[in-house]
Design a protein that fits this description.
It is built from 3 helices and 8 strands. It is globular. The termini are far apart. It is an alpha/beta fold. The protein has helices at residues 45-57, 110-119, 141-151; strands at residues 4-11, 18-26, 29-33, 36-38, 61-69, 83-93, 101-102, 121-129. Helix content is 21%, strand content 35%. The longest helix is centred in the N-terminal third of the chain and has 13 residues, at 45-57.
């Protein structure tokens, strides 16, 4: 039976105006996407995003304004026949980043590679300069649309 999955993502910039992305390897597939993940039963979308940043980056964030919600049909990249609805918020770190920040895509350290061997899933984080960012820097179709909307000013980002 097909299901609808809600995903919540955070748009976070650093002081240099660079956008945070995560490079993930999942069961042999590579994805560059925004940090975030699936809504769990009993939580709201903002709670989900706070939890995801804490789980993935050990980072406390404040969820700011809503930026975008998918308004078209998108089939899941992971489970054919299921529909994805993605919700995007701007987030702000409330403390310094504690995770290693990569300088290149899919630049995993030994611990991240060991995690992949054990679980078939790992991720690393990096920042992309806003001025060089393109839709093609991200893998997931909805993320690409969000980048395009931001670049064209159709999603207004606070200064």
């Amino acid at each position: 039976m097909a299901t609808i999955t809600l995903r919540v993502y955070g748009i976070m910039f650093n002081e240099a105006g660079q956008l945070l992305v995560t490079d993930e390897m999942i069961r042999g597939e590579r994805f560059t996407k925004f940090p975030g993940g699936g809504l769990e039963w009993g939580e709201g979308t903002r709670e989900c995003l706070v939890r995801e940043f804490k789980e993935e980056m050990n980072l406390l964030v404040e969820v700011k304004e809503h930026l975008y919600t998918t308004d078209f049909f998108q089939e899941s990249a992971f489970k054919k026949g299921d529909q994805i609805i993605s919700i995007y918020y701007r987030v702000q770190a409330l403390e310094p980043l504690q995770v290693r920040i990569s300088t290149e895509p899919f630049q995993f350290d030994a611990g991240q590679l060991a995690l992949y061997e054990a679980t078939r899933q790992t991720e690393s984080f990096r920042f992309i300069d806003w001025h060089t960012l393109t839709e093609n820097d991200l893998t997931l179709p909805i993320d690409r649309i969000v980048v395009g909307l931001m670049k064209r000013g159709e999603i207004v980002l606070p200064a």
